[in-house]
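In response to reviewer comment 3 from the previous cycle, which asked for concrete evidence that the modeling workflow produces usable outputs, we include below a single protein chain processed end to end. The sequence was submitted unchanged, and the resulting structure tokens are shown without manual editing.
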Amino acid sequence: MKILLGISGSSNVNLGLKLLKHLEQEPFETFCILTKGAKLSFYSENCKDLELLCKEEFKKTFFFDDDDLSAAVSSGSFKIDKTIITPCSISTLAKIHSGFADTLLTRACAVALKERKKLILAVREMPFSTLNLEHMAKLSSLGVIIAPPVYATYPKINALEDIDNFIIGKWLDLLDIEHNLYKRWEKLK
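The workflow returned the following structure tokens.
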């Protein structure tokens, strides 16, 4: 299986990186596109260079330049099975909704749509404007899964790491990847 992770320019790029750590532990090919906005957001929140960190931390993932529209993931013949963008900025959401394919990430999403492959958008914003919701509703009607980073309290959240694990676990569920990151719902007795 081939999974593409896009990390776009929104707050909490760290969640995308934590998801990537889990993806690297799986026996399939993992690819990643870091947008310019992701690099800027990450630096603003962490005072670190995102590209440098990724070169040091991730050995099994192949990274693509968002400006390289001729990269392998720009073609359906490369056969990416599942694409997830986390965080997905409102700008990226709007481009995908409108069919703009002016970056490698938006082109890869256009490919996922035309090939009817699983596409998951972890839209990171609050509150959503009516326009944002209209974009999400239209994409959802086309089969895109809208999965913002929202947590629940049933898994007994005690720390920020528990929240992150719950959110990442829900995304792994959507990617059909087994994990034990959070306690699943149990019927009350």
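The chain has a mean pLDDT of 95. We consider this sufficient to address the reviewer's concern, and the full set will be provided in the supplementary archive.
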